[in-house]
Amino acid sequence: MTESHSRVAIVTGAGRGIGATVAKRLAADGFAVALLDLNEDGVRQGAEAIVAGGGKAIGVGLDVSDAEQVDTAVTRVADELGPPTVLINNAGITRDNLLFKMTEQDWDSVLGVHLKGSFLMTRAAQKYMTEQGWGRIVNLSSVSALGNRGQVNYSAAKAGMQGFTKTLAIELGKFGVTANAIAPGFIATDMTAATAERVGMDFETFKKAAAEQIPVRRVGEPEDIAHLASFLVSEGAGFISGQVIYAAGGPRD
Fold this sequence. Notes:
By secondary structure, the protein is of the alpha/beta class. The chain folds into two domains: 8-185 and 222-245, Rossmann fold, CATH 3.40.50; 186-219, no CATH class. It has helices spanning 17-28, 40-52, 67-80, 104-132, 152-172, 190-198, 203-211, 222-232, and strands at 8-12, 32-37, 57-61, 86-89, 135-140, 177-184, 244-247. It has a seven-stranded parallel β-sheet, with helices on both faces. Helix 1 packs across helix 8. The chain starts with 7 loop residues before the first strand and ends in a 6-residue tail after the last strand. The model has no long low-confidence stretch (mean pLDDT 96).
């Protein structure tokens, strides 16, 4: 990256878990970071921690599925930090249930946050990237894109993120913008802890059982995803675009 390009990153769903960890890593890489999340207190605290550590960051509360809020937030980022050249579309929710029990609201809310939210964020941010002739977009998919019982909404959303990513790569490549997707396997976060609680298992027992099915014999940590995101947004990853990388401790089809 040359000095003519701004080093400003936006991370959605940055109030906790993977998003918060990615934001922290990008700040350590020298990016000014905007942490976005519905949980405004969480991103404000995360931004304050980055600033206290010598970095530059702001926390912005928003609903990524609301176009007006997204446009306002991205404009604020550009005004306060500079034009964003990196976008991590990480915001996501789960509303798990078997198909015959799933409500329209369960379906709409999950696809609204994952797919519509990523569309709105990317539409708003790409203007700054194409103007500068350089950009990096990283979308969070999941191994659930391959199908997972009780997650027809989440699986559809995460599979959609892969097609979304490949199309972005085709459309934006000529402007110096790459787009890639990370598809995590089991990552130890509050979300997976909530899943363990829902099925009535102690979280440590839940993680141990999951690790036994993973070739590297451990579950993932948010830092594993942050390391990969750090590489994909680097100058050195400029010839990698339109790819879906499964970060799952083993091969996936």
